[in-house]
Design goal:
single chain; alpha/beta; Helicase, Ruva Protein, domain 3; Arc Repressor Mutant, subunit A; 17-stranded parallel β-sheet; 45 strands; ADP binding; leucine-rich repeat; LRR_dom_sf; plant defense; Apaf_helical
Length: 1190
Amino acid sequence: MQFDLHKIGSVILKRMMDNTINLDNCDLLFLYDNLSKELATRRYLIVLDNLWEEDGNNLERLKEMLQHGRKGSRVIVTTRNLRIVQQLRTGFLANQRKICPVPESEIIELDVLEPGDGWELMKQRAFGADDDHNGLEEIGKQIAAKCGGLPLVANALGQVMSEQRTVGAWEHIRDTKFDLGLREGHQKETLERLVLSYYHMKPKFKLCFIYLATFPKGFVMDNRHIIQQWNALGYINSRHDGQCCINYLLGMSFLRIPGSASVSPSSLHFKAPQELVMHDLVHDLVSVIGADEFIDLDATKSTSWNRARYCRHAQLTNFKNDPEAFKHIPGKLRSLHFRDLGGLQLPKKAFSRSKYIRVLDLSGHSAECQSAPSRVVLPSSINQLKLIRYLDGTGLPIKSLPKNFHALQNMETLILSNSLFEILSDSICRLTKLCYLDLSGSSGLSKLPASLGELSQLFFLNLSGCSILQELPESICELTCLHHLDMSDCCALQKLPDKFGGLLKLSFLNLSGCSKLTKLPDNVSFPCLEHLNLSSCHELENLPIDFGHLQKLEFMDLSGCYKVPLLPVSFCQLNHLKHLDLSDCHNLKELPDCFGHLFELEYLNLTSCAKLRLLPESICKLFKLRRVYLSYCLKLSELPSSFGDLELHILHMNCLRDMNDCPDSIGDMTSLTQFVTYNATSGLLDKAREIRRRLNLVGNVHEVKSGECSIVDLVGLACSDLKLEGLQNVEHPGADSLKLRDKSDIRVLQLCWEDEGGESVLDRLVPPRTLEDFSLIGYRSSEFPDWMFDISSYLPFLSELNLKGLEACDHLPPFGALPNLRRLSLHNIPNIRKIGKKFYGEGGPCLKLRVLMLNSMENLEEWWTTESTKENEEFLIPNLHYLEVVNCQKLKFLPYPPRSMFWFLSNSERVLPERGSGKLSSSIPPSEMVLGNCSFSEDKWDRLQHFPTLEIFQLTSISGLRTLPEVMRCFSSLTALHLSKLKDLGALPVWLGLLESVQKIVILDCPSMTSLPESMKNLTALKILILSECKGLETLPEWLGQLTSLEHLEIMDCPNLTSLPESMKNLPALKILKLLDCEDLETLPEWLGQLTSLEELKIGCPNLTPLPESMMNLTALNKGLETLPEWLGQLTSLDQLLIEDCPNLTYLPESLWSLSALKLLKIVGCPSLAERCQGEDARKICNIPNIEFS
């Protein structure tokens, strides 16, 4: 392949400038100038892979282009030619030390495989686990010796040998020799060894393989397009055959997936990779083998094409709108590919002499080229290609198809992606053989033809990125052969046809990014569907109740479906589901109890399901589950006790604010290789550390304090969590020697200063690119190093950022540009006064930020949440889940605060918005708020009117509040009300009874409150009532018995309460009753025994006299009773005690021995208790005259 300095420079410059510059028509001088400017300010690493150029002048020009850069810049070159290495080490720039070649001793020269190693590699391909090697192994070793130690040859031959495991076949491979007529050299030997694998390749795949010479070296091929081209040329009979060929070539290592190692057929996923590349050596081989079939047509040398008149495949380059070039195109061509054509306007008669073409690829047109026309018309001569079966017009700026285009009745594949279509012509629906249609990226396409359903053979339809397409024609439901439908990012699509579920052969459906789609059709049978992507369907509210009918579904992505509250029960019928992503389903409150029926599930992502409180017990039955992600499930409070029964490999539990512990059984999960817990509660972090130690997992925190050791001593350190303290004592050489950026194992990093000094070492302590959690504590400088102003490039995976005690800092780098930032904490940065749009950088909104915590930002006055003050601006923090603001008395969010799901405000009352959120929309309606330590005037209380969706509201430690603010009446969705430490609260308002959705009320430490309003009897949904430390409360109201839904009643530390109202006997649902530390409560009423639903009773009042006899009727208490209270010993008049059907009760209280009046003790149906009472507890009951066990 020709050495192209222009292309190398363009690729490097584009990458540095994020593809924002057009370089198609620039000259080398322009490239040199811009590269010198860009490289001079950077420390870079450039890899030039597989360099073949031997000309010293060209290599010197390459070095001249790359000579600029900051100290520490590196260029790595890989090549198979040692002469190139020597050329790079010489020349003017090398001698002048402008580009310094490494010492010869540091050149890494990879050796070939030893014969034994080559055979081992080959044997892995050639034999199965239980295959008989007799008679073949010795021949195999002889074949391995012919591979010249090259892994590629060994892999390819091993694949061929695996299909012909006979002595005769292997001997034939061993004895075959080839002479390709190449000149002597290393390349000749390599290709002649490699051609053996082609010679013995399956005959049905040889034509397919040779055809790949059509593509330039290094070209990234689309798997689906290759198969369609093979089919169009008649090389395969079906798409299945094409996929088998792809897998076969992957198995031989002739094809590879970009960025991966070689792939064995057994490891291929059932869905083949979409992108493929060919190994350069294999490309050289296929170019030699297919030399007579393929030609590269240079349009500037068209007169020399006659020698290629019988070629079947060609690529056209350097076309400059010269119509004469087409007169010399070989007439027998079956495929024609245009490459790098820039501005393209084909002449009308371009194809008049090419009547045999089956494959026409016009995708080489570049819409970015400066000379490209704004609109292109396909030449009318295209209608003469009667045999054409494949047309790729990707990127062509065409608005319509030629007249009579429908006459191309053999057309099977039509790719018109990124076109300028506004309305697609009906004529396309007359291509009766069309089976593959790609209109992706046609952002102006607003309507599809009503007759689309006439394409009866269509199996593939791609409409992704058709961003103004609002609806699909009803006839799409008639595409009975459709297997693959991609409508991702059709962001204007609002509904699907009612009969959409009737696409019986559909196996792949992508609706991701259809952000206005509100529902799916009721009937979604799709009996063949395997892959379903509904991610970022933000307005989708419910899944169809018959969702479980998708019996073959293996992959489902529901991430970002903000409004889905529940999964239908039928969901558990998805017996083949392997991959389930529910991340960022903000409104998901629970998983169905039958979730454990998804027996094939391997991957479960629940990240940022902020309302999810519990996981069903049945999840512990998913024994094939390997990866679980629970981070940012802010309300998840516990895991099932048997969670450790799972055989997980990866478990992520970051930022779980309500979980204080995790099951001990996780410590028995020996399969676990990664257990991640950052920024969780102290209890959970302690348990996680203990579990990691028990399982010997990498993840120990390495904490280095000032004076304990030199930072130089950490050079060889390997850990996942690193804390460096006392950095004020570190100097540059020590920081440099640490090479922190190279420590890719580190996931959590804390850098701490305790005094002034050492601030400049932060420039040397660039974290590794893989970092996920970063804390900067006590940094005393007002300036940040350059890398922090490009932090999104340096730390693209960072999800947690904590800044604390930055006393001199008066501005922040663009932390909002971090693409994966989920949690940001700013604590005690006193000189920050304003956070504006510079904080967000050029990356737009912080789409993934879920937790924002601000503490003691005493001078912070403004935080802008939109780019400007315009009414229709979108939130720059649109999806916040938790907003905590403590001791920020001056702070106002402008123009509006982010609409967080959970609010915690303490001594920061100005954060509440004065005028709501204007016209701005957000997927996050506020649902929970805690207000504490605030001093509110009446007009500030009115700001709560902008939170009508609150479900949980808590007021704590607010002085001077004598009654609840009237504005709370707007909380029509309120389910829980918490009032604590309101010392001046005298009475609850009458209107409290109007909040009919309230299910829980907690009143704690409100000493001035003397009574409850009668209107509360209207709270018929109330299930939980807790009254604690209400010292002014003397009686409970009679209407308490009208709370027919009440299940849980706690009265604690109400010292003046003397009795319980008789109406309580009418509480039919009451299951839990707790009476504790009520000093004036001396007797319990006889009617207590009528509370027959009671399951838990806890009484701890010091002056209480014996319990009423009616308590023997409380049989429901027995179910879970595990202990008897010590106060039982205070019942000094008790003469008979019956303990019956309490299987969980294992021992008696110590105080039982003091019951001197007790004459009879009967223990019935309590096997554990009976056994103990006849053993170690016998001393407690030895003074009782009559004891019976049965």
